[in-house]
Amino acid sequence: MGARPHSGGVGFSVYSRHAERVDLLLYEHAVSTQPVRTIALEPPAHRTWNYWHAFVGDVGPGQVYAYRAHGPFDPARGHRFDASKVLLDPYGRAVAIPSDWRRESGHGVGPNDAHACKSVVADDQSYDWRGDQPLRRPFAQTLIYEMHVRGFTQHASSGVPAPRRGCFAGVIDKIPYLLDLGVTAVELMPVFQFDPADAPPGRRNYWGYAPISFFAPHAGYAADAGGAGPLAVLDEFRDMVRTLHAAGLEVILDVVFNHTAEGDERGPTFGLRGLDNATYYLLDREGRYANHSGCGNTLNANHSVVRRLIMDSLRYWVRVMHVDGFRFDLASILSRDEYGQPVANPPVLWDIESDPVLAGTKLIAEAWDADGLYQVGQFFGERWKEWNGRFRDDVRTFVKGDAGVVPRLADRLMGSPDLYGARPREPAQSINFVTSHDGFTLADLVSYDRKHNEANGEGNRDGSDDNRSWNCGVEGPSDDAQVQALRKRQIKNLLAINLLSLGTPMLLMGDEMRRSQGGNNNAYCQDNELSWLDWTLLERNAEIHRFVRGCVRIRNLRESVREDHRLTLAELIERVNVQLHGVRLGAPDKAEHSRSLAITATSLAGDLLMHFALNAYWEALEFELPALSHDAASGWRRMIDTARDAPHDIAEFAQAEGVMGRAHRVEPRSVVVLFAQLR
Question: Which candidate in 146, 329, 369, 393 is catalytic?
Fold first, then answer.
C-alpha cells in the first residue's frame, strides 16, 4: 500500500471499494495548480479487487502526488465522492504543504489543487540509524513526561536557536534538562500530520488531535519546513528519536485513530472521505456520521481495511521510525463495532495486542471516549496499561479536602487493586497522573475554582466542568503570602502522591515549574504563550523543580522501581506487607468525614521501611508511628514534609532529619514521608 520506490520507478496502490475510477496525479511542486501527469487507473489493468494500482517509471523519492476518485455523491448511502478534490494517500509517508494551504478549499465545488496538501514518495530505508533500536524499558522503571513538541521549546526563553525552536530538533537541545529532571520517557502529543486550521475562526489547532495522515510526521515540526523539502521532517524526527535513545530516553507517541480532521458532513474532504467514505467512517442508516469522538466523525476501526491501516501505521512507526510505544487517544472507540456498539473482543485491539512487531512496544489506553464509554480498569486484553482517570479524580478530591474519598485514596496509593487486582496485572498497570494536557495545569489546579476558556471563542462552554480544583481562597493570581504558601504546599502534596504511589507516574510538561494557562482547561487552540513553556519559570519556581527532582530520587530508592520483578500487583502488595492506618496505627479511618490516611510498606529486598502520612484536614494531626525493631540500621528519617519550607521540605536519606517518639505531628494539608533503614 502507498507509494513504494523500486528500481526504475514507484509502485502506487490505494484502496477504494466504491469508486468507479481513480486518477493518480503527479505534481511538480506542492503549490502546482495542476498535475504534470494524470494516470487513469482503470479496471482491469489497474484494479485488483478493491485495490487501485500502477507502476510508474522514471519517478522516485521526492515525487509529489495525490489522487482523484470518481464515484457517486449519495450521502444517504454513505458516498461522498467529489472528483474535483485532490486526495491524500492514506499511506503517504510525507505530506507537501502548500504555502497557501486552505482548509476551506476542501469544501464546495471546483478543483483545489493549488491549496490542497499532497503526498510525497519517500524511501523508508535510506536513513542511517547507527545501530539504534527501541529501548524496551520495563514499565516498572518508567517515568513519563507528557510533552508538546512545539510548546516545549517555542518560547524565546527556551534558549533554543530560532530555526530549531518548536521543532523536533529543539527537543534534542533539551535532553540534558530531561535527564536532570529524572524522567525516562517523553510522551509526545500528536505528531502525525494534522490540520492546524481545524479550530475556531482566528485560532489554530495547537494540540494536534486533527489528523490528516497516519504515517507522515507533522511538517510544521521541522526546523526547515520549506527550504529542505517535505522529506526533511522524516530525518529530523529520526534524529530526535536516535538522540533520545542514546541518552536513555524512550519515545511514546500520542496517536489518534478514532477520528480525522475531515469532521462531519460540513467538514472538508482531504482523503478518506473522498476515497471511500462508506468504508472508513461509522455511519448510521441514513449516512450520517457517528460522533463518539466529539470531533464530528468516528473511524470505522474494526472494518478489515481500517484495521489494516491502523496496524500498518503502528508497525511503520516501530519498524521504520523506532518509537518505543503509543498512547491511544480515546482508545475505547476502538472497541466499538460498525454499529457503534462496544464489543467484548474488538478485532483491532486483538490485532494490536497479538502483533509480533508490537510485542515489545508500550501500549497505553485512554480507556474512555467522548460518548460515555468509560473502561478504566476494564479495558481489553493483557498488555495494555491505562491512563487512570480515577487516580486523577480521587487524588485531586482528597488533596482539595473533600470528604468521603479516603477508602478510594488507599487503593490509588497501592496501584488501584480495586481496578486491577482481580486480573494478573503488573504493579505498573496504572498510569498515574493528576494533570495532563486535557484540563488544568498543576498551578491552575490550585489557583482556580472554575475554568476560564473565554479566549477559545466558544463562550466558555468548551472544556470540562468537573475539575475538582480549589483556588485556595482567591480566584487566579494572588500576592497574598498565605494564599501563595498554601498553593505551593498543595502542589507539593499532589506531586508527592503522584510520584510515590504504586504504578507508572506521568508528569505534564511544565508542572515542575508551575506553568499556568490562566485557568484555561482546554487550550487546544491556543498556539501562543498561553500554552508554550516559559523557561523563566524554572528560576522563579526553583523550589518546585527541586522538589520534583527529589521525589524522583526517593521513588528510585524503592527496589520495585529499580528492578522488574515480574510480580503481579496483588503479589507485590502482599510481599511488601502493606498496612493501612489512620492517626492510630492499624485503624484507618474510612468514615465519610475522614481526611487523613497513613500507609506503611517495606521494600521488596526488606532493606527499607516506608511510612506515608497524608493529612488533608485543615488542622494539624498527630499520627502514631510504627515501632522499629531493635536491630534496625536507623531510626525514622523525614524524607518529605510538604509543610516545611525549602530546603527542609525534601532531603536525601543521608541528610534527612531523624524523627523521635511514638507519634509525629503532620501539619494541616500536608504530606509526610518517613524512611527507616533495616538490616
Answer: 329
Would you call 261 helix, strand, or coil by DSSP? Answer: coil
**CA-CA distances (angstroms) from residue 303 to 77, 211, 306, 335?**
17, 19, 5, 12
Choosing from 195, 366, 393, 511, which is the catalytic residue? 366
Q: Grid coordinates 504515517 are at which residue?
A: 215
Q: What is the DSSP string of 331-361?
A: GGGGGB-TTS-B-SS-HHHHHHHH-GGGTTS
Q: How, if at all, do strands 430-432 and 504-508 pair? A: parallel
**In degrees, to the nearest 5, what angle opens at C-alpha 362 toward C-alphas 356 and 367?**
110
Question: What is the spatial distance between Cα 597 and Cα 154, in angstroms, rounded to a whole number?
Answer: 42
Q: Alpha-carbon distance 499 to 278, whole Å?
A: 46
- The answer to whether 419 touches 377, Cβ cutoff 8 Å, is yes
Assess contact for 388 and 376: CB atoms under 8 A.
Answer: yes
Grid cell for residue 230:
517535505
pTM for this entry: 0.97
- Taking the C-alpha atoms of residue 181 and residue 553, their distance in angstroms, rounded to an integer, is 10
SS3 97: coil
Helix 389-400 to helix 481-500 angle (10° resolution) is 140
In 154-251, where does DSSP find H-type helix? 168-173, 175-181, 232-246
pLDDT of 596 higher than 90: yes
For every residue of 400-427, DSSP letters joined together read HT-SS-HHHHHHHHTT-HHHHTTTT--G
622 CB-near residues (< 8 Å, 6+ apart): 583, 663, 664, 665, 666
- The amino acid at residue 401 is G
| H or E element, residue 393 | helix 389-400
329 has catalytic annotation: yes
Report phi then psi at 489, rounded to 5. Answer: -65, -45
Q: Is the dihedral of CA 99, 103, 108, 112 positive or negative?
A: positive
**pLDDT band of 101, cuts 50, 70, 90:** confident
Helix (H) or strand (E) holding 387, with range, is strand 385-387
Q: Which helix H or strand E contains 638, and what residues bound it? A: strand 637-641
Q: Cα separation of 609 and 344, whole Å?
A: 42
What band does 564 get if pLDDT is binned at 50, 70 and 90? low
| Dist CA 336 CA 300 (whole Å) | 8
**CA dihedral sign, ordered 344, 348, 349, 351:** positive
Q: How confident is the model at residue 626 (pLDDT cuts 50, 70, 90)?
A: very high
Whether 574 is catalytic: no
In what helix (H) or strand (E) does residue 527 lie, and over which residues does it extend?
Answer: none
Q: How many other CB atoms are there within 10 angstroms of residue 622's CB atom?
A: 14
In this prediction, residue 668 carries a pLDDT of: 98
Q: Rounded CA gap, 504 and 417, in Å? A: 14
Pair 663, 623: CB distance under 8 Å:
yes
Residue 226: its pLDDT value, please?
58
What are the backbone dihedrals phi and psi of residue 305, each rounded to the nearest 5 degrees, phi first?
A: -70, -40
Assess whether the previous peptide bond of 647 is cis (omega < 30° from 0): yes
Contact 322, 301 (CB under 8 A): no
Average pLDDT (238-244) is 98
SS3 304: helix
Using alpha carbons only, give the angle 199, 521, 205 rounded to the nearest 5 degrees: 20
Q: Which residue segments constitute the domains of the chain, with CATH numbers given?
A: 2-120 (2.60.40.10), 140-250+304-561 (3.20.20.80), 577-677 (2.60.40.1180)
Handedness of CA 163, 167, 168, 174 (dihedral sign): positive
Cβ contacts of 194 within 8 Å, gap of 6 or more? 205, 208, 209, 210, 211, 212, 218, 261
